[in-house]
Specification:
- By secondary structure, the chain is mainly beta.
- The protein has a single domain, classed as Beta-grasp domain (Ubiquitin-like (UB roll)), CATH 3.10.20.30.
- The protein contains 1 helix and 7 strands; from the N terminus they run βββαββββ.
- The strands form 2 sheets. Strands 2-1-7-4-5 form a 5-stranded mixed beta sheet, with helices on one face. A two-stranded antiparallel sheet has the order 3-6.
- Strand 1 and strand 2 form a beta hairpin.
- The radius of gyration is 12 Å and the shape is globular.
- The chain starts with a strand and ends in a 6-residue tail after the last strand.
Length: about 70
């Protein structure tokens, strides 16, 4: 299985699908304290759904963090 997180490929040899929460542990080396949003194949996923929303082969996650400026 292969998924993409922010354009980077993550090959997962023994998985057929994983939750968004599990996929985020691949992306974040350390637990995140900041706010971020997640989109699965372009559709936003609510934080309460991270554990129950499954990521399948070929899916793409976008992790978006707020940008400050003025």
């Amino acid at each position: 299985m292969n998924i993409h997180i922010n354009g980077k490929a993550y090959p997962l040899s023994n998985e057929t699908h994983i939750s968004v929460s599990s996929a985020l542990t691949l992306h974040f080396i350390e637990p995140q304290q900041s706010t971020f949003a997640v989109a699965l194949n372009g559709d936003f996923v609510g934080k309460s759904d991270y554990d129950t929303t499954m990521v399948k082969n070929g899916d793409s996650l976008d992790v978006l963090q707020p940008i400050q400026g003025g």
